[in-house]
Amino acid sequence: MHRRSDRRPVTEWWRTVDRWFLFSFFALIAFGIVLSFAASPDVAQRIGLDTFHFVERHAMFIIPAIAVMIGISFLEDRQVRRVALVVLLGSMALMVATLFFGVEVKGSRRWVRLAGVSIQPSEFMKPAFVIICAWLFSEHLRRPDIPGNLLAGVLFAAIAALLVAQPDLGQTVLVAATWGAMFFMAGMSWLWIVVLGSIGILGLAGAYLTLPHVASRIDGFLSGAGDTFQVDTGREAIVRGGWFGQGPGEGTIKRVLPDSHTDFVFAVLAEEFGILLCMVLVAVFALIVLRGLTRSFREDDHFRRLAVAGLVTLIGLQSMINIMVNLQLLPAKGMTLPFVSYGGSSMLAVAITAGFVLALTRRRPATRFGHVRFSGDTAMQAAE
Predict the structure, then answer these.
(1) Which residue from 180, 183, 233, 379 has the fewest beta carbons nearer than 10 Å?
(2) Which residues have CB under 8 Å from 91's CB, separation 6+?
C-alpha cells in the first residue's frame, strides 16, 4: 500500500490510473505474444524467412509499445493535445508522401520507408485525429461562437481525401464511423445525421463504382465468387477449432492461411484454442469499450468525455471489423486486431491510443467547498 502523502510521480500515477484499462491492455498484449508463436512461424517458413522471424520482430516492438503507452499515460490534458497535434501533423505529412514515394502493395500506397523502416502513417493518424476532433468539438460546446464543429469537419474531409487517394476504404470507413460517433455525442442535430448519413452512403456507392478492387471484394462477399480462398480458409479454421480448439501448435489449416499472423490471427486463435478463448478475447475488447463509454458519460469535462469515448470507439470498431471479416460477416479488409496482430506500426499506434485513454481517465483532484473531489470513481475526500 502506498501512503497518500507519497507524491512521487510513479506512486501518484499508480494511485490514479484506471487499472481496469491498464490490465485489459496488458491482457491484449499477452494474447498477441501467444498468437505470435502460434500463427507466424508457418508464414515465415512459407516465404523463406527464419522460423521465428515474425515472433522476434513482434517481441521487438512490445517493449517500445509498452514504454510509449505508459509514458503517454503520465501526461495532462494539455500535454495530450500537444502530442496529438504533433503526431497528427507528422502523420498527415507522411500520408501525402506515401502518394508519391510510398511502397505500392496490391495497388495501394499506404507505406513509406524512413531510415530503412516501413511505416504506415494512417495508423498513427487515427488516435491523434480523435484527440484533435474531441478538442474542436469541446471548444464549440464551451463557446458556440468558436467554429469547432466546422473545423472538425474540414479536418475529417482532409483525412478522408488522403485515405481515399491511397486508396484505403476500410480505414476511411473506420475513421468516418468514429468521427460520426463523436459528432453525435457532441450534440449533432438530426438534420446533420441525415445529411452525413446520405453522404456516407453515396461515398460507398461511389467507391463500389469507381474502385475495381472494392467492387471485386464486395461482389465476392455477396456471391461467393472470385478469390475467396483466405476468408474461406479462415472460416474453416474457426469451425475446426470447435469450443476447445485443437491445442497449442496443433493447428493445421493455419499453415496455408496467407495472413494468419495479421488479418486472420483470430482464426488461428479459434483453431488452436477454441471458441471459448475467442469469447474471452472479445470480452476484453468489450470491457475496454463499455468502461470507456461509462467513464465518459460520467465525465464533466467535454474534452475528456469526447476524447475517451472516441478512442474506445476506435478500438472497438477496429477489433469488430477484424473479427467480423474472420467470421465472413464483412468483405475481406486488411485491418489488424489491436495489440494482437503482427505489425510494428499498428502496435505502436495502438499503444499511443491506449496511452491517451489511460492519461485521460486518471483520477484528478478538483477542489470544491474545501474538499478534494477526484474525478472518476473516488468520492469526496478531505483536503490534506
Answers:
(1) 379
(2) 121, 122, 124, 125, 128
CA–CA dist 241, 31 (Å, integer): 17
With a cut of 50, say whether residue 381 has pLDDT above it.
no
Q: Is 257 left (phi over 0), alpha (psi -120 to 50) or beta?
A: beta
- Say how many C-beta atoms besides its own lie within 10 A of residue 358's C-beta: 23
The residues, ordered by sequence, that sit 6+ positions from 114 with a Cβ below 8 Å of its Cβ are 94
pLDDT tens digits, 369-379: 334 444 544 43
pLDDT of residue 367: 37
* Cβ pair 350, 70 in contact under 8 A: no
Q: Sign (positive/negative) of CA torsion 356, 357, 358, 363?
A: positive
**pLDDT tens-digit readout, 260-280:** 788 888 988 999 899 999 999
Give the residue from 187, 196, 181 showing the smallest Cα distance to 312.
181
Query: Residue 31 carries which side chain, given as an amino acid letter?
Result: F
Enter the C-alpha cell of residue 77: 490534458
Beta bridge partners of 380: 373
Cell of 328: 465472413
Q: What share of the chain is helix, strand, coil (3-state, %, to 5)?
A: 70, 5, 25
Strand ranges across the sheet with 108-114? 103-105, 108-114, 117-119
CA 286 to chain centre: 13
Burial class of 145 by CB neighbour count within 10 A (0 to 12, 13 to 18, 19+): exposed
